[in-house]
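Next up, sample data.

:::
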Amino acid sequence: MITLYSYPGLYGLEDNNPYGQKVFAFLRLCGLAFEHRHILDAKAAPRAQLPYLVDDDKTIGDSDAIIEHLKQKYAAPIDDELTHPQRDLDLLIRRTLDDLYWVMSYSRWADPRYWPIFKDAILTTHPGVTAEALDGARQYNFDRYHYQGIGRFEAHDVYARGVADLQVLSNLIDEDSFLFGTEPVSTDASVYGFVANIYFYDIDTPLKQFVLSRANLVRHCKAMRDAVKRTVAR
């Protein structure tokens, strides 16, 4: 039995963290049956990070490691047709998304223009979460941003970095297909986890403004949402 542990959802998404949303989308695209459990405390997770997966007696942390495990154990054919250059591009895209993550996180927790909206959305959607807990998480994130480096940037420089990441994604996505053809692959799930956590949020950050200005990013996000929702577990 597969169990996915990830953060709670928000704004209609299954996870308010792009990495958990990515794994959720991958599982659905592959038609794998799984239980989804939402948690907030990541202390028991591998490396104290969410998401993580429990598959029978094995526990796997890190979204990329989770996907590799699922592809190997269940012979998921989703990426079988990818060429070597496409696999190289997949890695480069995932590394770009790792950079985008920090900008997304900064926009929610650090930017005083958007933090109250994000905080209120969490408190309204999840009554069990306290304002004190969120304030503590915010301070923790401030420390993370400082040591990672992005917390030392001016806000406009932070968003310029994120917009540059999104521009690359927009450049790679056609107007009427997925990244590598007519069917989604794991790379599409990765991109979807991030763009969905921008597009579907009712928070008008510079990241969302950019996504809305790129019809191909919006189309890809909506097409992935439809694909994720219609997949039936085998």
Observations:
- The chain has a mean pLDDT of 94.
- Residues 84-109 form the longest helix (26 residues).
- The chain has two domains: 2-78, 81-230.
- The radius of gyration is 17 Å.
